[in-house]
Amino acid sequence: MRYIYQSSILLVLSLILLMTSCKDNQPKADIIIINANIWTGNTRQPIAGAMALSGETILAIGNTKEVLKTQGENTRILDYDSSFITPGFIDSHLHFFTGGFNLTYVQLRDAKTPEEFISRIEEYVKTTEAGTWILGGDWDHENWGGELPSKDWIDKVSPENPVFVNRLDGHMALANSLALELAGVTEDTKDIEGGSLVRDKQARLTGILKDNAMSLVWNKIPDPTTAQIDSALVHAMNYVASHGVTSVHHMVGYMDALERARDNKKLITRIYAAYPIENWKKLESEIEKNGNGDQWLKIGGVKGFVDGSLGSHTAAFFEPYTDLPGDKGFFVNSHEDLYNWVSYADKAGLQVIIHAIGDSAVNFILNIYEQVANENGDRDRRFRVEHAQHLIPADINRFAELGVIPSMQPYHCIDDGRWAEKLIGPERIKTTHAYKSLFDSGAKVAFGSDWFVAPPFPLYGIYAALTRRTLDGKNPDGWVPEQKISLEQALTAYTINAAYASFEENLKGSLEPGKLADFVVLEKNLFEIDPIEIKDVKVLQTWVGGKKVFEINN
To answer: 151 — phi, psi (to 5°)?
Structure first.
């Protein structure tokens, strides 16, 4: 009995020592955040008050008592005094470098009159050397009633500088006479497939080029230098970080610069970069050789186009535009090319990401997706339709049924809503930017900005999705108000659903142990304020991989 008693004591002591040793070996937090209001994006634990960070990842999240168990001798404790925290916003559709370049170009987005349009170009020309191309712009002719600008407006103020400034949607641009001359575009130049050169009543070129016709001038513009490209990336990353964006889905271009920044550890934004769909074979080879990237820079998607944009009258519809009878828009690529690209890219295991705005374009690409999925067999392919703005009612449920992601940009809703009805009439707008119908159908809606086309401000996008109040103030109760969604749905679209859209939902998009410590600190709890206030809420801090990459200057 004595022997058994002594053995029992020894066993208990051994277990206590083992438990103490295991406890000491538990990882300790580098940083613990306490006294916060955290919306985690995790449906199993939607709200938390504290979070522990270890390196680039989240170690623990929950109540303060539990999280403080991860405190070690060197742990920093940060008291957030009830600040509101969300997962880092993911912009699921933007043009990162163009946005970065445009931050330093002529600014025309809010020009309200032709005179202001002209004067801004005139003033910008004064800051540049003769011969320098004037680019960017992002003008919106609806600001002054819908008259398209003309080269005659700007030739006198830019005699020594070629000008090529795009409409804010990127599907139409204005060239001055010098730019047309340098590009070899004359009165005899014919329209090209998938694009057009706008002419006046005397059949003279106005300088407006639409969609594929823009390449006639773009191809003559000198390439930016390596230093200019790298600078544009830095400008872009800092800009989106200041608005709470921690990851972006970049729609094509400048892969060398992205790889250079990653290799030099210069990235502060996580990037999912797409290749042009016609280059699917190149992407397949790159992945076979080097893999699909890492947590900072990932590849795997190919981007293509079906049609143009609503504002340029190049989005493809089944019925004619209300204001231009006989004009239904057009496809910018042939049916055959689109089918072949989608089919080959899908067979190669790539994610297909296709721009489609008009109801005919969306219907066409959904049909192609359904056909290709049936032909190529079952797999987790996550086809995407970028924009998906105008839908026939019969197509709404097909997104969920086919597993297709509608990648949408809510700022466009409150921008286009100022004038869209005069283009497509009152019936078609009922299923325009149909966020609620798509959520109700079970589709995984992902949100983004389409920057440079629209500002990369997730809080403004959330405001737009919740209120649908157009920028002109004429729809205080919302434009097509039945398509408003909840705050939780909008946050989901900017976080976990956007992560899902790049096959990264197990890595980011919600705040959970083991996931990346990418999060945003906001000055107000979005669940406690009127939705109309959301667009004005300030981003206090942005963290990526457990490191603060932005902090507001108070």
So the answer is: -60, -25
User: Would you identify the CATH topology of the domain 104-218?
Assistant: Diaminopimelate Epimerase; Chain A, domain 1 (3.10.310)
The pLDDT of residue 14: 47
Spacing of C-alpha 541 from chain mean position = 20
Return d(Cα 199, Cα 195) in angstroms, integer: 13
Q: What is the DSSP letter of 472?
A: T
The encoded tokens of residue 483 equal 């398509």
Backbone φ, ψ for residue 26 (5° rounding) = -65, 140
> In the prediction, which pLDDT does 12 show?
46
Residue 299 structure tokens: 């590849």
For residues 405 and 180, give the distance between their C-alpha atoms in angstroms, rounded to a whole number: 40
In one letter, which amino acid is 75? Answer: T
Residues in a beta bridge with 85: 38, 521
Residue of 161, 99, 94, 109 lying closest to 133 (CA atoms): 161
Q: Give the CA distances from residue 295 to residues 54, 56, 212, 506, in Å, rounded to whole numbers and listed in that order.
A: 16, 10, 35, 12
Predicted TM-score of the model (pTM): 0.87
d(CA 112, CA 144): 6
Cα 285 from Cα 287, distance rounded (Å)? 5
DSSP one-letter code for 524: S
The three-point CA angle 98-101-106 to 5° equals 110
Q: How many CB atoms lie within 10 A of CB 83?
A: 18
pLDDT of res. 24: 55
Number of H helices, E strands in the chain: 19, 24
Spans of the chain below 50 pLDDT: 1-22
Domain boundaries, the chain: 2-82, 104-218
Backbone CA torsion sign across 268, 269, 272, 273: negative
Specify whether the CB–CB gap between 172 and 209 falls below 8 A: yes
Distance between CA 281 and CA 259 in Å, rounded?
19
pLDDT attached to residue 249:
98
SS (H, E, C) 167-199: ECCCCEEEECHHHHHHHCCCCCCCCCCCEEEEE
pLDDT in tens, 74-123: 999 999 999 999 999 999 999 999 999 989 899 998 899 999 999 999 99
What architecture does CATH give domain 2-82? Roll (2.30)
* Residue 441, C-beta contacts closer than 8 angstroms, at least 6 positions apart: 396, 397, 399, 400
CB 465 within 8 A of CB 505: no
Q: What tokens were used for 89?
A: 């916003």
